[in-house]
UniProtKB/TrEMBL annotation:
InterPro entries: RutC-like_sf, YjgF/YER057c/UK114. It comes from Actibacterium naphthalenivorans. This is Enamine deaminase RidA (YjgF/YER057c/UK114 family). CDD domains: YjgF_YER057c_UK114_family. Pfam families: Ribonuc_L-PSP. It comes from the Bacteria.
Length: 129
C-alpha cells in the first residue's frame, strides 16, 4: 500500500493518510459498522470504551481473513457528539500504535444509532496480498 499525501494540500489533522493506493491483485475486506457491544450483548458505557470494543470486533473480523490492523487502508467512524471525539481518537490511536503507515480516516458526528446507548460506530476497509 502506498500513502498519498500531496504536499500541495494541508497535512492531515491527526495520525491518518489523505489517501492510500492499493496495488492490483490485493484482497479486500470491508467490515460492517461495528458498535461498542460485546459478544454477551453488554455495551461499554463511555465512548472510549465503546470505540475500544469496536476495534476489538474489527480485529476479530480481520483475523478471520488472515489480516491485522496494519492491513487497514480506511477507517470510517461515527460518534454521536463532539464530546466523544477524544475518546474515539484515543482508542483509534491505541489500535494503530504498532501500525507503521496509518490508513485514510474519516470521523463524522451523527444524531444517533439504533439503540440510544450506542455512542460510536466504526467500519474499516483492509487490503492484503
Amino acid at each position: 500500500m502506498r500513502p498519498l499525501t500531496p504536499t500541495s494540500i494541508r497535512a492531515p489533522f491527526a495520525r491518518y493518510a489523505h489517501g492510500i493506493e492499493v496495488p492490483a491483485g490485493a484482497r479486500l475486506v470491508v467490515t460492517s459498522g461495528q458498535l461498542g457491544v460485546r459478544a454477551d450483548d453488554t455495551v461499554a458505557k463511555t465512548a472510549a470504551e465503546q470505540a475500544t470494543q469496536c476495534f476489538a470486533n474489527i480485529t476479530a473480523i480481520l483475523a478471520e481473513a488472515g489480516m491485522a490492523p496494519a492491513d487497514t487502508i480506511r477507517i470510517n467512524a461515527f460518534v454521536t457528539d463532539r464530546a466523544h471525539m477524544s475518546g474515539y481518537m484515543q482508542a483509534r490511536d491505541a489500535w494503530l500504535a504498532d501500525v507503521a503507515q496509518p490508513p485514510a480516516s474519516t470521523l463524522v458526528i451523527v444524531s444517533g444509532f439504533t439503540r440510544p446507548e450506542f455512542l460510536v460506530e466504526v467500519e474499516v476497509t483492509a487490503a492484503a496480498p
